[in-house]
Amino acid sequence: MQQLKRIRVKLEQLSNTDIKRELFGAGTHQYRLNPVLRPAQVREFEKAHQVQLPEGYAAFLTSIGDGGAGPFYGLRQLEMTRICFFDHTGLEDHQYFDLAHPFPHTEKWNMEAELEAVDAQLDAACEAGNEQLEEQLFEKKWDLISGTEHDQGRLYLADYGCGVQVSLIVNGKEKGNMWTDDRINDGGIYPSVELGNTGKISFLDWYELWLDNGLRKMQNTLRAALTGV
Fold it and tell me: Superkingdom, according to UniProt (predicted)?
């Protein structure tokens, strides 16, 4: 696959160019990749969780690496992508995505009007010093957005920061595309656009766009240093 070859070359170029690890997240992942998985390991994962991974992502895992260098703070390892939330306990106690059922969305989803109404009530409760009501309203707010259907058919690939999850859809109509979960900041769930793409984007295109953006930024930085502009 030519795209995988390009990705491998561009990643090395970016690592060699960003010597001081100045780009967002580079200080964390250091442009290092984890060892690749064997095809049999990918098949075992798919069988265990009743899902077939998108072709491009599966090829990345078996020929580039099982996580490591990647957008934002880097890519998580395959086995860790199933975890919704970490609670610093044993793996059996974590909350996991349901990969066997389809991701429910095809367009941006949010409950803006409902959340705004609860926020107004929260402001009033805060001004009144009613902590008990505040707690109840926070629970109401979470109940609005925390349906388990949102945690179906996706893998949590990358952490954008501030609780924002960037996911790869592995089951459903959006299979193969990257989506962002910003419910924690009232942003809803929507097709990923953080890298500047204007439409929906597949995993390999998303990864290569991250590399292209980084190389362009480093080239501009070097040009500015040489010309003083």
Answer: Bacteria
Look-up of token digits 């059996």: 92
Closest alpha carbon to 199 in 178, 217, 175: 178
The predicted pLDDT at position 88 comes to 52
Q: What is the mean pLDDT of residues 14-27?
A: 96
pLDDT tens by residue, 169-202: 999 999 999 999 999 899 999 999 999 999 999 9
**Both tokens assigned to 183:** 């419910």
Other Cβ atoms less than 10 A from the Cβ of 156: the count is 20
Separation between Cα atoms, residue 211 and residue 205, nearest integer Å: 10
The residues, ordered by sequence, that sit 6+ positions from 2 with a Cβ below 8 Å of its Cβ are: none
* Residue 178 CB partners (closer than 8 Å, separation 6+): 157, 166, 167, 168, 169, 191, 192, 200, 201, 202, 203, 206
d(CA 107, CA 189): 9
Report the C-alpha gap between 126 and 204 in whole angstroms: 46
Per the CB < 8 A criterion, the answer to whether 99 and 49 are in contact is yes
Determine the angle formed by the axes of helices 2-17 and 203-227, rounding to 10 degrees.
30
Q: Are 170 and 178 in contact (CB under 8 A)?
A: no
pTM, 2 dp: 0.91
Residues 53, 171: Cα–Cα separation, whole Å: 8
- For residue 141, what pLDDT is reported? 87
